[in-house]
């Protein structure tokens, strides 16, 4: 069944109605899926409540639906993970966002580091790129039936990103020169961690000064194993391990 996200305010519980007014969703329902009155779709409010609703009416800009069934979602992991991703070249960020959304990421923060090659000219270009990245997260969340849509934040420089750790139980930075402490060892020491931040460098990794700055901020360097992983692989490798150990990946 096709799935769509709507704002909470578009769900009128006392009237058992839902309104879809996002132009892209309206166009997709009418012109691509060619759904009609009486057809059913899945609706999620982005806050982990889910609905089955039937189309009651539609016009060029609005689709109205009647709620048939609702329930609390069960597809969100019990841990919240934020990926601080050094911005890579080309379309690698697209893949990172898509796959991390599928795996259960909560938030992605693009980070500008000393080895970042991509140049974001001004705030307008940043906002435009983030808008496109957010659409990728939206589509991936629909496809894998997430209960929330991960937030893609505006880019920030590394020195600012490492200040954003006070709300985490644990913050990690995979580093190729760290050989003794792995994720398993850290997780054995941090029982009960539910809010975790992961810092991944761009092509070429982090500079030594950045690693030292991260350590001083309280971020823990870890190894992901004996092989050097690409930037587009490292983030969702770490995320997969964390989701397996602490989340719901692999089942109960």
UniProtKB/TrEMBL annotation:
Subcellular location: Cytoplasm
EC numbers: 2.1.1.193
Catalytic activity as recorded in UniProt: uridine(1498) in 16S rRNA + S-adenosyl-L-methionine = N(3)-methyluridine(1498) in 16S rRNA + S-adenosyl-L-homocysteine + H(+)
The Ribosomal RNA small subunit methyltransferase E PUA-like domain, residue ranges: 20-61
Keywords assigned by UniProt, alphabetized: Cytoplasm, Methyltransferase, rRNA processing, S-adenosyl-L-methionine, Transferase
Keyword Cytoplasm appears in the UniProt entry: yes
GO cellular component, one term: cytoplasm
Primary location group: cytoplasm
InterPro entries in the cross-refs: Alpha/beta_knot_MTases (IPR029028), PUA-like_sf (IPR015947), RsmE (IPR006700), RsmE_MTase_dom (IPR046886), RsmE_PUA-like (IPR046887), tRNA_m1G_MTases_N (IPR029026)
Molecular function as annotated in GO: rRNA (uridine-N3-)-methyltransferase activity
BP GO terms, sorted: rRNA base methylation
Residue span, Ribosomal RNA small subunit methyltransferase E methyltransferase domain: 76-243
Function: Specifically methylates the N3 position of the uracil ring of uridine 1498 (m3U1498) in 16S rRNA. Acts on the fully assembled 30S ribosomal subunit.
Family note: Belongs to the RNA methyltransferase RsmE family.
Name of the protein in question: Ribosomal RNA small subunit methyltransferase E
Origin species: Anaerosolibacter carboniphilus
């Amino acid at each position: 069944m096709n799935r769509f996200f709507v704002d909470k305010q578009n769900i009128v519980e006392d009237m058992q109605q839902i309104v879809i007014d996002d132009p892209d969703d309206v166009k997709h329902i009418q012109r691509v899926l060619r759904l009609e009155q009486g057809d059913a779709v899945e609706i999620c409010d982005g806050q982990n409540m889910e609905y089955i609703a039937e189309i009651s009416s539609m016009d060029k800009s609005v689709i109205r639906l009647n709620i048939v069934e609702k329930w609390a979602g069960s597809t969100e992991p019990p841990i919240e993970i934020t990926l601080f991703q050094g911005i890579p070249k080309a379309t690698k960020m697209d893949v990172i966002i898509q796959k991390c959304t599928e795996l259960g990421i909560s938030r992605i923060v693009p980070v500008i580091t000393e080895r970042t090659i991509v140049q974001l000219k001004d705030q307008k270009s940043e906002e435009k790129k983030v808008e496109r990245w957010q659409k990728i997260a939206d589509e991936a969340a629909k496809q894998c039936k997430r209960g929330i849509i991960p937030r893609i934040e505006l880019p920030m420089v590394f020195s600012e990103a490492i200040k954003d750790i006070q709300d985490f139980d644990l913050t990690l930075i995979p580093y190729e020169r760290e050989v003794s402490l792995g994720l398993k060892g850290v997780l054995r020491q941090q029982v009960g961690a539910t809010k975790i931040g992961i810092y991944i460098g761009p092509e070429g990794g982090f500079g030594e000064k950045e690693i030292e700055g991260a350590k001083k901020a309280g971020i823990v360097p870890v190894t992901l194993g004996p092989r050097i992983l690409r930037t587009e692989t490292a983030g969702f490798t770490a995320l997969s391990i964390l989701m397996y150990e602490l989340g719901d990946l692999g089942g109960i």
